[in-house]
Amino acid sequence: MYTYQKRTQYPIDIKRKDVRMAKYILTQYGGPYGELGAALRYLNQRFTMPDERGRTLLTSIGTEEYGHVEMICTMVYQLTRGATIKEIEEGGMGGNFATHGLEMFMTDSNGQDFSVTGIGATGDFIADLSEDMAAEEKARATYEHLIDLATDEDVIQPLLFLRQREIVHFNRFKQMLEVYKKEFNR
Amino acid sequence: MYYSGNSPLFFVPSYPTEKEMRADNEPKYEMAQKELYQADEALEKGNIFKDEYKGYKNYIPAKLKAKKEQQMLLMNIQAYSGAAHDLELYLDIYPTDKKILDLFVFYSKKAKELLDEYNKKYETLSPSTAIDKNGTFSYVLTPSVWLKM
Q1: Angstroms from B106 CA to nearest CA on chain A
Q2: Does B64 contact A171 at a Cβ distance shorter than 8 Å?
Q3: Which of A9, A13, A175 minimises the CB distance to B78?
Q4: Which of B67, B89, B128 should one mutate to test binding to chain A, selecting the residue with the greatest count of A CBs within 10 A?
Q5: Could you say which architecture CATH assigns to the domain A19-183?
Q6: For residues A153 and A15, what is the distance between their CA atoms, to the nearest angstrom?
Q7: Residue A113 forms beta bridges with which residues?
Q8: Residue by residue, what is the 3-state secondary structure of chain A?
Q9: Which residues in chain B have Cβ-Cβ distances shorter than 8 Å to A172?
Q10: Would you say residue A122 has pLDDT above 90?
């Protein structure tokens, strides 16, 4: 059972419109190293973990990733709030507007639709946890690109927070993998 | 939301206070001081275990300050529930680590108290604590997260 709270994990309050930045950040919604993919990956992999520790860890991190999906969407929403058609076009989101209007869609920053083909599900807990570590590193690298592109503190600060969460998750997956390798003699 | 300078703003207080932790359990306090960030700093940095924090280039996580009391309470909820969540991820792997377990119970309890206070004073964040507010289901009166300023 999932419960919900109307709050983010970290405060987000972006006051300055910036359609171009919204387009870039959208990649952490529907891009290959984004939060949606992370949530789906971990919550899908839970069922073949060898015991309750791995199942619980993947559930907890996967759930947190859904919170991050909402944070990313909040940032995109606030960056495009009140944008005119001209601003949308100039910001490079005319293509998105043509199909989806002002609604967000799960694409990367180039408009490529979200795909599940890159999500590992091997049924092997060693392979899956190793993939999860790589996924966290890829997300961290993406956040660093976004921070490099950002100019507004209101945008940079939540991105720094989300980047650090990737580092924490990487460490937890690494610890879980090491514990399992030792205990299961793999 | 992110300020520098000397504006008269509410700060997210450092918590647990030394007094509170000492009254509770001295060794636990020492361990927490040494190895963990306090809840407010953990929220600002994005993690509670000191040895896990890795900054990016010259970027510095902003000191979070609230403009009004309601926002301050919400930031405290974010800080304490975030601290509890970070400890939980660790406990998922090492569920018998007594020191971390004690700290988890402390932060988790504190987060719940703050959440109850917020629900009572301002607005409900969940349907389960919603009330009849002048004939309206109060959960619908709470703005969605992307509309919170």
Answers
A1: 19
A2: no
A3: A9
A4: B89
A5: Up-down Bundle (1.20)
A6: 10
A7: A107
A8: CCCCCCCCCCCCCCCCCCHHHHHHHCHHHHCCCCHHHHHHHHHHHHHHCCCHHHHHHHHHHHHHHHHHHHHHHHHHHHHHCCCCHHHHHHCCCHHHHHHHCCCCCCECCCCCECCCCCCCCCCCHHHHHHHHHHHHHHHHHHHHHHHHHCCCHHHHHHHHHHHHHHHHHHHHHHHHHHHHHHHCCC
A9: 89-90, 92-93
A10: yes
pLDDT at residue number B9:
42
Q: Provide the percentage of residues in chain A whose pLDDT is more than 70.
A: 100
Q: Nearest residue of B to residue A57 by CA position?
A: B92
This model of the complex carries an ipTM of 0.97
Partner-chain contact A3 B126, CB within 8 Å? yes
Q: Looking at CA atoms only, how far is residue A87 from chain B in angstroms?
A: 21
What pLDDT is recorded for position A59? 98
Q: Dump pLDDT digits (tens) for B36-67.
A: 999 999 999 999 999 999 999 999 999 999 98
Q: Give the start-to-end residue ranges of the domains of chain A.
A: 19-183
Threshold 0.95, pTM exceeds: no
Strand-pairing partners, residue B11, are B65
Q: Residue B10 pLDDT more than 50?
A: no
User: A–B: how many Cβ contacts below 8 A?
Assistant: 112
Cα of B43 to nearest chain A Cα, Å: 7
A156-172 mean pLDDT:
98
CB atoms inside a 10 Å sphere around CB B122:
14
Whether B94 has a pLDDT exceeding 70, the answer reads yes
> Considering only CB atoms, which chain A residues are within 8 Å of B148?
6-8, 12-13
Look at residue B26 and tell me whether its pLDDT is greater than 90: no
Which residues in chain A touch residue B52, judged by CB atoms under 8 angstroms apart? 167-168, 171
